[in-house]
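Can't attach files on this board, so I'm pasting raw text. These are the components:
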Amino acid sequence: MNLLCRGSLALASAVLAVAAHAAVVTDERGVRVDLPQAPQRIVSLLPSLTESVCTLGACERLIGVDRYSNWPDAVRALPQLGGGIDPNVEAIVALKPDLVLLAKSSRATERLEALGLKVIVLEPKSHADVQRVLDVLGQVLGIGDAQRVWRAIDDSVSAAAEALPARARNKRVYFEVNSAPYAAGEVSFIGETLARLGAKNIVPASLGPFPKLNPEYVVRADPDLIMVGARSAQGLEQRPGWASIRAVREGRICRFKATESDVLVRPGPRMGEAAQLMAKCLRDKA
Amino acid sequence: MKSLHRRVLSLGIALMVLAAALLVLGAGIGSTGFESVFAAHRDPVALQIVWDIRLPRTLGAWLAGALLGLAGAVAQGLFRNPLADPYLLGSASGASLGMAVALSMFGVSAASTQWVVRLGLTGAAFVGAVLGVLLTLVLARGVQQTLRLLLAGVIVGVVLGAAKDLITIASADILQAIQGFMLGSTGLVGWSACGVMGALGLVCLLAGWALAPLLDGLALGEATASSLGLPLGAMRAALVAVLALATGTAVAQTGLIAFVGLAAPHLVRSAVKTTHARLILLSTAMGGLLLMAADLLARWLIAPQELPVGVLTAVLGGSYLLWLMHRRSARGGL
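---
Top answer:
Structure tokens for the assembled complex are below.
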């Protein structure tokens, strides 16, 4: 009886805590968004935000996502509301969300706000951003220990780094994001992970996070190892002059499957997994 | 003469009736169908969808198309060139450059972010479009020489377009947003955008109509036009202003919608041969109808998803013009 009583008391206080939850967060536009209650019907239009919400344990509060969100499996069953560049405003409104999470570059922000929806603009781009965005989402969702997720990412990256044999360190790596070619530089979140794995990025910080390179630059830098998505790896060896690159000569090219590429190029809770993928590549090929 | 007058009138009426029918149809097409319309009186969300999203969007498509049709008729008359389109004076590339600058300044520093948020992407695109046209005018040293104006417009278009590409390459994450803008979309048009386009459209239409006698004169050659005793310079400057304002307004709200401005005057001319005053009015109605129809198709073809409307206008308008040319050449004409 006593136990039951105490249990219901705990439940009541939990309900009270949810009801009293009020958060004011400042998003990346510098706009203060006031949330008197923890949102229960959330639309996320950026895969990394979808993944973050789910990892924070609020997946069941998502009611719609963009067409690129595909992890975890639970979100595949949700209505798809267009992409970042062409969100379907009508379908979003029809779902009656109490919060819409959007990337910075989305033009839909003004329109959705004009229709009376609460909008928070968040777009993680670096490790520090991911940590901060998790914090903001934790406040928004009323979840106390958002940093738990960050610590898990951090531990996973550290574990991946520690498990690497000495011979896999200090390798000079070229990470190609797509075949334009855009590369992941030192200051990108991919570059930050590579640095923690002890790899040397051939693209210095001065070139920015994702510079478009002259293919000649890669030939001159002569990387020991190339990481690339399987789709953009087509014909990589046949590019003029690339046959002489050490990584190409010695077959040290990691081609990531599409599902693995999704993990690698999204700055979100799966960055730990991404680090494991890159570490595996370093271990196997370097 | 009497029968021509009647044909012009009946074409105008047909265009407006069709537009009204499509407006009604537009209330019923979207992620769901007409059930939202029937549910609107009891379900506030259905009401919001029909009243605040579908109607302004459909009407906005008409208004943007009308602005482009108007601008197209003015451009083709002004440059005496049937290939002239509203984007000719650098407004399109200016608008996309404005968009690229705004997107890339977002998040660089607190001040620049605030500036972008305050101006809005629409505002940035409009400012870009106006600056593009002004740059063209400076390069052409005014509006006196049509050929010089045309050339300056093409050059400004190429240079500003390249500047936009440079910015996009430097910050690759805005690539998608820019691409969306280049394809054009009516999906984000609300009542306020309709208000802006409607008001400015009316001003442009009245001005264009009043200035049409100059276009009739120009069709007979610059010498004839000046011999008519019209204030050529002032009227031409006013027409360029109409062109820039109409295009800039449409582009800022809906992105670069292809072909409507080029095709609308041709479609009108293929139906009736008339004076520029009437051509401008009819071309406005035709452009509106074209874009509105394309917008409905874009929403309906793969519902609940959407196609970019600019792609559809290019496919539809382009194939119709091809067919028109084919039919005429088969008859031994142009």
